[in-house]
Amino acid sequence: MIYLDAEHFVRAPEWTWYILFYFFFAGIAGGSYVISTLLRFSGDARDEAAARIGFYVSLVAVIVCPILLTADLGESWTRFWHMLVNVTPGDNSLNFKYWSPMSVGAWALLVFGFFAFVSALDARVRFIPMFLNRLFNILGSLVGLFVASYTGVLLSVSNQPVWSDTWSLGGLFLASGLGGATAVIALLIRNRPEASFSLGRLHQADGYFGVLELILIVVFFITVGNQGTLGRVVSFLPLWALAIAGLAASLVAARGQMRVRGGGGGSATVAGVHIDTVVVSILVLIGVLALRGAVIFSAQ
Fold first, then answer.
1. Distance (Å) of CA 50 to CA 38, 53, 173, 199, 269
2. Could you tell me if 290 and 217 are in contact, meaning their C-beta atoms sit under 8 angstroms apart?
3. Per-residue confidence at 261, pLDDT binned at 50, 70, 90?
4. Please, are residues 140 and 133 in contact by the beta-carbon 8 Å criterion?
5. Distance of alpha carbon 191 from the chain centroid
6. CA–CA gap between residue 204 and residue 67 (Å, rounded)
7. For the purposes of burial, counting CB atoms within 10 Å of the CB of 5, is it exposed (0-12), middle (13-18) or buried (19 or more)?
8. Separation of alpha carbons 38 and 140, rounded Å
């Protein structure tokens, strides 16, 4: 169970699978919004269809987050609301604690949910003027970057072995979330002719995020090893292997200059080898989930 009134974990929080998927969907939510904004700012109108799908993904993912977080508490389903509003009789007010990573994270989800909802609605009916829309997307992306990375920062500010032994978790979760979001969008547009133009550049972007993630994984192992807690991490090598496999898939797709075959339903040729976008995306997403599992459970 998570103790929301604590700034740091004084003992292993004993998180369940709900938190694992909460961290996963938080990365997908923030990452999808950022990727969609980048596609929209690419200057090519043909990227708009993929950007629209990304905004839809972001909204769905951010809706799932508070559900998973509340489910992990094992208490009232109004608990997430209590994280936002003080319901103490005679003291009804906003429950924002800037010194608490938990409180900041809950409010970030609420604010980001607003951006995700408006952008998804605008992607559907286009009611925001172009200039304001671009400004709105930039602000939403800044919040999205925070949502995608703060779960790693949340772990780093605890006093748990492994988590507190490295400064790389915020960046690692951000890079992983961006890569996972790119994979989801690519998976969803693979059979959409109006959006397939963006498929190649999505795979290339996933490769760039994969390189950054790989660098941060190396930093993670070095920093944890310097603190003498590498043994906890090594015990989860199968999960790390899955994470690396996902990175390898994204790097192969990017390096091979993935080119979608006309009418191929998402198929592509990578360095002369026939491969399907579905395979790449699923491997990347499994890797994103495995990475979070390896980090989260290594300290419990």
1. 11, 5, 23, 8, 21
2. no
3. very low
4. no
5. 24
6. 33
7. exposed
8. 12
What whole-number percentage of the chain has pLDDT above 90? Answer: 53
* Residue with token string 């671009």: 134
φ and ψ at residue 56, rounded to 5 degrees = -65, -45
CB atoms within 10 A of CB 222: 12
| Euclidean distance between CA atoms 298 and 240, whole angstroms | 11
**Strands annotated E in the chain:** 85-86, 93-94, 259-260, 267-270, 273-276
CA neighbours within 13 Å on the CB side: how many for 150? 21
**pLDDT by residue (tens digit) across 124-144?**
999 899 889 999 999 999 999
Please list, in sequence order, all residues whose beta carbon lies within 8 angstroms of the beta carbon of residue 299, skipping any fewer than 6 positions away. Answer: 12, 155, 158, 160, 161, 162, 163, 232
51 vs 142: CA distance, rounded Å: 17
HSE-CB for 249 with a 13 A CA cutoff: 24
* The two three-digit tokens of residue 177, written as one number: 């979330």
Q: Tell me the pTM.
A: 0.86
What is the C-alpha to C-alpha distance for residues 268 and 63, in angstroms, rounded to an integer?
Answer: 33
pLDDT digits (tens, 9 = 90+) for 205-256: 999 999 999 999 999 999 999 999 898 898 899 999 999 999 999 998 887 6
Q: Quick one: how many helices (H) and strands (E) in the chain?
A: 10, 5
Determine the residue type at 94.
Answer: L
Which of 126, 149, 158 is CA-nearest to residue 29?
149
Helix axes of 169-189 and 277-297: crossing angle, nearest 10 degrees: 150
Question: 250: closest CA among 212, 193, 217?
Answer: 212
Domains, the chain, ordered by start: 17-297 (1.20.1630.10)
What single-letter amino acid sits at 55? F
